Automatic annotation (TrEMBL):
Keyword annotations of the record: Membrane, Transmembrane, Transmembrane helix
Keyword Transmembrane: yes
Name of the protein described by the UniProt record: Uncharacterized protein
Segments passing through the bilayer: 18-38, 74-93, 114-136, 180-204, 216-239, 245-266
């Protein structure tokens, strides 16, 4: 009885100790953010703003730095939101349950419902894809710059953008560099992101059919689908490459690989 009372009284003290340590850690982080990180970050922006205003004809440096919140220089930005919404939508049509099922099998809480999976992908998944969405701007900031220019009416987004971009390859007299700029900096990152999320879903299907229930037929189908998507991924980059006549002919192999392997994966 004495040992029971001792351990019963000791546990709250131990938890209280951890809570105090956690509280101190949080206070230190907040203090560093308020008194060091924020002044160091914004102080440099303020200094550059004064420099640009005086030496660059009154250029608004903050507008240049944030690009109307498309730039990833600031943690909360529209570019990351594009990734968050794109990823969450793709993982919700239909709701992807394999990841939670694998975790649930390991932790013994079972297979989640479609509603729980939907909630997961629009909460934790949304946060995950928000940070992955920052990768959209990894092309030297071209994604943010392109959307900023479109938003401000500096360049026009054509509905025939894809056809115009591929026309540059097959028509040697076409020198429409604006189309290639928009295509390579806006469309390519979005398509790569979408294909990457779809491949992630297919990989989860493979893990399910290997780990949860053995089904070699479905595993091979998903592998074929991934190969087809990779062919499509390479095809997307073609307008951004320097190609000769032989390379243009080889494009047909990518088209054939995309449709044939994807069809095999679906079947």
């Amino acid at each position: 009885e004495g040992r029971f009372k001792y351990s019963l009284l000791k546990k709250p003290g131990r938890y209280k100790k951890y809570l105090i340590i956690l509280a101190i850690f949080v206070v230190i982080i907040i203090a560093l953010a308020v008194f060091w990180l924020w002044p160091a970050w914004y102080g440099n922006i303020n200094l550059q703003s004064q420099l640009y205003a005086n030496k660059a004809g009154g250029l608004d440096y903050e507008d240049f730095f944030f690009l109307n919140f498309w730039s990833t220089n600031f943690l909360f930005n529209k570019t990351a939101l594009v990734g968050a919404f794109t990823g969450s939508i793709l993982m919700s049509i239909p709701p992807e349950r394999n990841l939670l099922t694998i975790i649930g099998t390991k932790l013994r809480f079972g297979k989640p419902s479609y509603l729980k999976s939907m909630i997961f992908w629009w909460t934790f998944g949304f946060i995950l894809f928000y940070f992955l969405g920052l990768i959209l701007n990894s092309n030297n900031g071209g994604f943010a710059w392109t959307l900023y220019l479109i938003e401000n009416g500096e360049i026009q987004l054509s509905p025939n953008l894809i056809f115009d971009a591929f026309n540059v390859i097959f028509n040697i007299n076409n020198t429409d560099f604006v189309t290639i700029y928009i295509y390579s900096n806006l469309l390519v990152p979005i398509v790569v992101f979408i294909i990457s999320v779809i491949i992630f879903r297919l990989i989860l299907n493979i893990v399910r059919n290997v780990y949860l229930r053995r089904n070699d037929y479905l595993v091979m189908g998903n592998v074929f689908a991934i190969i087809g998507l990779l062919c499509g991924l390479v095809f997307v980059f073609i307008p951004t490459m320097s190609l000769d006549g032989i390379n243009v002919i080889q494009i047909l192999a990518l088209i054939f690989g995309f449709f044939s392997f994807t069809a095999l994966g679906v079947l």
